[in-house]
Write a structure and sequence with these properties.
The structure holds two protein chains of two kinds. Chain A is mostly helical. In chain A, 78% of the residues lie in helices and 0% in strands. The chains are: A mainly alpha, B mainly alpha.
C-alpha cells in the first residue's frame, strides 16, 4: 500500500507514457487499416485521409471511447481480489500496457497483422490469472469478449452483404444507374450519420455530463444524419460527369458518386476505430490513475479522469501525423481493383458494427471486423479476388496474440514486482 | 508493410489481364487481313513481315497467359470459379495460336488463294475475325459484370452479345460451305497439293470463329455457375 502513496505519481507517469506510446503505435500502424480501403479505391488522397483520420479518430476516441475504456479498466478483472493489494493491480495494468506495446512493436517490425485489442486483453488476463489467481479474472466477461471477436466479423460480413446487394438492386441493376446513384447515395450517408450520431449520443457523451433522453437522442441523431446527407447531396450535385460515357456499360460515373459516399464512410471508419481502439491504450492507464488517485482504494464507481481520453486521442493523432503518411502510402499502392462502390459497403458495415460494439463496451478488432465485411462483399460477388491466405494469417494472429500478450505481461509483471517490492 | 494491413486481403484482379489478353489475341488475328492482302499481291516479303508481327503478338499473349496463371493461385476467393477462368483463358489463347498456324502454313508454302475465290475468301476471313472481335467485346464486359455482382441487366447484355457471336459463327459456316463448293468447282485446275492445303486453310480460318464461339460458351458457363 505504501508504494502507491510514495511513488504513486511515478507510476501514473510511467503508465501515461506507455499508454501514450501505445496510442501512438495504434495511430501509426492500425489507422492504416481503417483508412486503407478509402485510399486504395482512390476515393481519398493520402493527405485527405490523414486529415480525416486525425479529426475523426480524435472525435471517436474522445466522444465514444469511454465505454470500451471502462471494460478494459474494470470489466475483465475482479477487483475484489486486489482490495488488500491494490499495488498489484497497478503493476499488472502497467505490465499489460508494456506487454501489448512490445508485441505491437515486434509485430509491426515483422509485418504481422496483429490486433492491439487482442494483445491488451490477453495481457490483462495473463497477469491476473498467472500473477494473482485464476479466480481474479471474470471469465464470463472474457468469454463474452472473445465470443464477440468471432461474432462481430460475422455480423459485419452479413451487413456488408446486405448493403452491397441493396446498392446493386437500387443502383447498378437499373436502367439509369447514375440517376439512381444520385438519388440513393444520400440515403446511405444518412444511415452512416445516424448510426454514428446515435451511438455517440446514447453511449459516448456520458462523461461530458450531457443528459439526453431516448426520444431526444433519436431526434438529434436523425437531424445530424440529415445534415450529413444534405451536405453529401450538395457535393454530389457539384460533380462533373463524363457525359460521353455510355451509361449502360460504363460505371465510371456511378463510381464518382460512390467516391463522395466513401468520404463519409471513411470518416465513420476513423471515428469507429478511434472509439474502440483508444481503450487499448488508455484503459489500463485509466485503471492505474483511478487507483492511485483514490489512495489505493479500488472504486468501481469512479469516472475516468478527464485528461485520459484526450491523451489517447492525441497519442493516436501524433502517431498518424508522424508515420501515418508513410504507412498509408505503402499500402495505397498495389491495389488494382477496389472501386468505391465495394469499399463503401465494407467500410459502412464495419464502421457500424465497431461503433455499436464501442457503445456496448466490447473491445473488438477493427481490422478483423473490416475483413469480415470485405468477405461479405466478396460473397455477394463484388470483389475480383480476395487473398484467403492473408485472411487466414489475420485469423491466426488472433490465436497467437492472446498467449503471447499474456506471457509477456506475466514477465513484465514479475519484473515490476521485483523492482518495487 | 502491406502484409500488416487490410489491403493485403485484396489480391490482384484477374479481370483486367484477361481483358488485355483477348485484346492482344484479336490484334493478332487481325493481322491476317494485311497478311492475306500481301499474299494475294505476291508480296512475300511484306507477308513475312506481317507474319513476324503476328507471331510477336502471339508470343505476348502467351506471356500474359502464363503470368495470369501464376497470379491465380488456389487460395483466392473470387466471384467466378477459378477453373472456369483458366479454361476461358486457354480458349482465348487458342485463337492466337490458330492465327499463327494459318500465317505460318500459308507463308511456308507460298500458297496463293485462286483469283476467282479471292473476294469470297476475304469476306469469309473478315467475318471470322468479326467473331473474334465480338468475343473480345463480350470479355471486355467482365469489369461491368464485376460492378453488378455478376447479375441482372449486365448478364443479359453479355448473353445478348454471346447470341450475336453465335449468329456470326453460323454466318461463317454458310460462307465456308459456299467457299468449299466453289473451290470444288475449280480444284481440277489446281495443283492437287495446293488444293488440299486450300481446304485446310479454309478450315483453319473457320476455326477462328469456332474458337471465338467457344470463348463465348466458356464465358456463359462462367456466368452460370454459383
Amino acid at each position: 500500500m505504501d508504494i502507491l502513496l510514495n511513488s504513486g505519481s511515478t507510476l501514473v507517469i510511467i503508465a501515461a507514457v506507455v499508454g501514450f506510446f501505445m496510442a501512438w503505435g495504434i495511430g501509426a500502424n492500425d489507422v492504416a487499416n481503417a483508412m486503407g480501403t478509402s485510399v486504395g479505391s482512390k476515393a481519398l488522397t493520402i493527405k485527405q485521409a490523414i486529415i480525416i483520420a486525425m479529426v475523426f479518430e480524435f472525435a471517436g476516441a474522445y466522444l465514444a471511447g469511454g465505454e470500451v475504456t471502462s471494460t478494459i479498466r474494470k470489466g475483465i478483472i475482479d477487483a475484489s481480489y486486489f482490495i488488500d493489494t491494490p499495488e498489484l493491480l497497478v503493476f499488472g495494468m502497467i505490465s499489460a500496457l508494456f506487454a501489448a506495446a512490445t508485441w505491437l512493436l515486434i509485430a509491426s517490425a515483422l509485418g504481422w497483422p496483429v490486433s492491439t485489442t487482442h494483445s491488451i486483453v490477453g495481457a490483462i488476463v495473463g497477469f491476473a490469472a498467472m500473477g494473482v489467481s485464476t479466480d481474479a479474472v471474470i471469465w464470463s466477461k472474457v468469454g463474452g469478449i472473445v465470443g464477440s471477436w468471432i461474432i462481430t466479423p460475422l455480423i459485419s460480413g452479413v451487413i456488408a452483404f446486405i448493403i452491397f446487394n441493396s446498392a446493386q438492386k437500387l443502383i447498378f441493376d437499373t436502367d439509369k444507374p447514375l440517376q439512381q446513384a444520385k438519388r440513393w447515395v444520400p440515403l446511405y450517408m444518412f444511415l452512416a450519420g445516424f448510426v454514428l450520431a446515435l451511438v455517440t449520443i446514447k453511449k459516448g457523451l456520458k462523461h461530458l455530463d450531457l443528459h439526453i433522453g431516448t426520444a431526444d437522442g433519436f431526434i438529434y441523431a436523425a437531424l445530424t444524419a440529415a445534415l450529413v446527407a444534405f451536405v453529401g447531396k450538395i457535393f454530389i450535385s457539384r460533380l462533373q460527369f463524363d457525359e460521353t460515357a455510355e451509361l449502360k456499360t460504363h460505371y465510371a460515373n456511378v463510381e464518382k458518386v460512390f467516391a463522395v459516399l466513401m468520404i463519409v464512410t471513411a470518416c465513420c471508419m476513423a471515428f469507429a476505430h478511434g472509439s474502440n481502439d483508444v481503450a487499448n491504450a488508455i484503459g489500463p492507464l485509466a485503471a492505474v490513475v483511478s487507483i492511485v488517485d483514490n489512495g489505493g482504494e479500488i472504486s468501481a464507481k469512479s469516472a475516468i479522469a478527464w485528461w485520459i481520453l484526450p491523451l489517447g486521442g492525441f497519442g493516436i493523432v501524433a502517431g498518424l501525423a508522424l508515420f501515418g503518411h508513410k504507412v498509408i502510402a505503402t499500402i495505397g499502392q498495389g491495389i488494382t481493383h477496389l472501386t468505391p462502390s465495394r469499399g463503401f459497403a465494407a467500410e459502412l458495415a464495419a464502421a457500424c458494427t465497431v461503433v455499436i460494439a464501442s457503445g456496448a463496451g466490447l473491445p473488438i478488432s477493427t481490422t478483423q471486423t473490416l475483413v469480415g465485411a470485405v468477405l461479405g462483399v466478396g460473397m455477394a460477388r463484388g470483389i475480383a479476388a480476395i487473398n484467403l491466405t492473408v485472411v487466414r494469417n489475420i485469423v491466426v494472429s488472433w490465436v497467437i496474440t492472446l498467449p503471447v500478450g499474456a506471457g509477456l505481461s506475466i514477465i513484465f509483471f514479475w519484473m515490476m514486482k521485483g523492482m518495487f517490492m | 508493410m502491406a502484409r500488416n494491413s487490410i489491403l493485403g486481403v485484396f489480391a490482384k484482379s484477374p479481370i483486367k489481364p484477361l481483358e488485355k489478353h483477348i485484346r492482344l489475341v484479336v490484334k493478332c488475328s487481325n493481322q491476317l487481313i494485311p497478311f492475306f492482302e500481301a499474299c494475294s499481291e505476291n508480296d512475300w516479303s511484306t507477308a513475312a513481315k506481317v507474319r513476324r508481327k503476328l507471331s510477336k503478338l502471339e508470343q505476348d499473349a502467351d506471356t500474359l497467359k502464363r503470368q495470369l496463371r501464376l497470379e491465380l493461385p488456389g487460395g483466392l476467393f473470387m466471384p467466378v470459379d477459378r477453373a472456369d477462368l483458366l479454361e476461358l483463358l486457354t480458349q482465348q489463347d487458342k485463337i492466337a495460336n490458330k492465327a499463327k498456324d494459318i500465317a505460318g502454313r500459308v507463308l511456308g508454302r507460298k500458297l496463293e488463294i485462286p483469283e476467282i475465290l479471292r473476294t469470297e475468301f476475304n469476306t469469309y476471313l473478315a467475318r471470322c475475325i468479326d467473331a473474334t472481335e465480338k468475343a473480345a467485346d463480350a470479355i471486355n464486359e467482365l469489369d461491368g459484370l464485376l460492378e453488378t455482382g455478376f447479375r441482372g441487366r449486365e448478364v443479359e447484355l453479355v448473353e445478348k452479345m454471346i447470341n450475336q457471336l453465335d449468329e456470326i459463327e453460323d454466318d461463317t459456316d454458310s460462307l465456308q460451305i459456299s467457299l468449299r463448293k466453289n473451290l470444288l468447282a475449280i480444284e481440277n485446275d489446281l495443283n492437287p497439293i495446293d488444293a488440299m492445303f486450300l481446304y485446310q486453310i479454309i478450315d483453319w480460318v473457320g476455326d477462328l470463329a469456332d474458337l471465338a464461339e467457344r470463348v463465348g460458351a466458356r464465358l456463359e458457363i462462367l456466368l452460370a455457375r454459383k
